[in-house]
């Protein structure tokens, strides 16, 4: 699509694919690139024909971090006026399932972008990390929060303080990565998973995602009340009627997202 300068966007069936396309700088995340990624994600999120979104990187990296040259001379007042992380916040309210297909490096902002997705499929050669500490700064797009919620404060602090990289195997063991596959099969396996999810009832996927996100922050009782409301809500959908009818009739359901 011609309106994108830093990414490539396409749709395959019910799967929307966003490819970070600045391989000459290992897909370093400039502010323009982040704005384009968020705009493309939101466009897919509004498109009823798109049931799953996949993010990946062109070349040797998913994204090797923020564009340091762009921010080296920034000061707190300029950053406050830029309010650049407002774009990142918009990723948190996307309802369509999002999968990161991580090839090569996912460092700093690249790691944060992967963590903003619901599932991460990683190449066996992928590496993750937050090297910001080595530049005298720290993650600012949710890295300290999302990593801590995933693996706990003590393990998160070790990686955040040292700036060391996690292998795909280590990230999988810690529960950060959901699947590790051979490099040559990364997109094939990611698309297989995406297409599998695209066959599921989309309203149920959206409300399950919402309930799981609440589980991270809510006390158990409040989380269960939220889950219950979403459970009830799905009984107003045509997909619920179709799913249960298909089960009773011993046939494959045809979900329409209605």
Structural descriptors:
single chain, 258 residues, alpha/beta, 2-enoyl-CoA Hydratase, Chain A, domain 1, Lyase 2-enoyl-coa Hydratase, Chain  A, domain 2, 2 domains, six-stranded mixed β-sheet, four-stranded mixed β-sheet, 12 helices, 17% strand
What does this molecule look like?
The chain has 258 residues and is an alpha/beta fold. Helix content is 47%, strand content 17%. The protein has helices at 31-46, 68-71, 76-82, 85-91, 109-115, 143-151, 153-162, 168-173, 186-198, 202-217, 220-234, 238-249; strands at residues 7-12, 15-20, 52-57, 61-63, 98-102, 105-107, 119-123, 127-129, 165-167, 179-181. The strands form 2 sheets. Strands 1-2-3-5-7-10 form a 6-stranded mixed beta sheet, with helices on both faces. It has a 4-stranded mixed beta sheet with strand order 4-6-8-9. β2, α1 and β3 form a beta-alpha-beta unit. The protein starts with 6 loop residues before the first strand and ends in a 9-residue tail after the last helix. The mean pLDDT is 93.
Number of strands: 10
CATH topology of the largest domain: 2-enoyl-CoA Hydratase, Chain A, domain 1
The stretches of 5 or more residues where confidence is low (pLDDT under 50) are none
Number of helices: 12
Listing every helix as H and every strand as E from the N terminus to the C terminus, the arrangement reads EEHEEHHHEEHEEHHEHEHHHH
- Sheet with the most strands? 6 strands, mixed
CATH architecture of the largest domain: Alpha-Beta Complex
CATH homologous superfamily of the largest domain?
2-enoyl-CoA Hydratase, Chain A, domain 1
Instruction: Name the average pLDDT.
Output: 93
Strand order of the largest sheet: 1-2-3-5-7-10
Strand-residue fraction?
Answer: 15-25%
State the end-to-end distance.
Answer: 29 Å
**Structural class by secondary-structure content:** alpha/beta
Instruction: Write down the domain tally.
Output: 2
> What is the overall silhouette?
globular
CATH class of the largest domain: Alpha Beta
- Computed over alpha carbons, the radius of gyration is 19 Å
Estimate percent helicity: 40-55%
Keywords: Lyase
Family: Belongs to the enoyl-CoA hydratase/isomerase family.
InterPro entries: ClpP/crotonase-like_dom_sf, Enoyl-CoA_hyd/isom_CS, Enoyl-CoA_hydra/iso, Enoyl-CoA_hydra_C
Protein name: Enoyl-CoA hydratase
């Amino acid at each position: 699509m011609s309106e994108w300068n830093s990414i490539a966007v396409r749709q395959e069936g019910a799967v929307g694919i966003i490819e970070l396309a600045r391989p000459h700088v290992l897909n370093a995340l400039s502010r323009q690139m982040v704005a384009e990624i968020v705009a493309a994600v939101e466009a897919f999120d509004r498109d009823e024909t798109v049931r799953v979104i996949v993010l990946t990187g062109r070349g040797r990296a998913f994204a090797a971090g923020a564009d340091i040259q762009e921010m080296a001379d920034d000061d707190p007042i300029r950053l406050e006026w830029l309010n650049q992380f407002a774009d990142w916040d918009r990723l948190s309210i996307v309802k369509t399932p999002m999968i990161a297909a991580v090839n090569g490096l996912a460092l700093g902002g690249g790691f944060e972008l992967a963590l903003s997705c619901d599932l991460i499929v990683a190449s066996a050669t992928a590496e993750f990390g937050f090297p910001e500490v080595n530049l005298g700064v720290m993650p600012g797009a949710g890295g300290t929060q999302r990593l801590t919620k995933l693996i706990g404060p003590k393990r998160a602090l070790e990686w955040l303080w040292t700036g060391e990289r996690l292998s795909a195997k280590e990230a999988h063991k810690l529960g950060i990565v959901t699947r590790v596959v051979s490099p040559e099969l990364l997109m094939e396996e990611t698309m297989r998973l995406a297409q599998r999810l695209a066959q599921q009832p989309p309203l149920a996927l959206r409300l399950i995602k919402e309930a799981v996100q609440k589980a991270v922050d809510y006390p158990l009782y409040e989380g269960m009340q939220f889950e219950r409301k979403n459970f009830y809500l799905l009984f107003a959908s045509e997909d619920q009627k179709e799913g249960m009818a298909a089960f009773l009739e011993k046939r494959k359901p045809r979900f329409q997202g209605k």
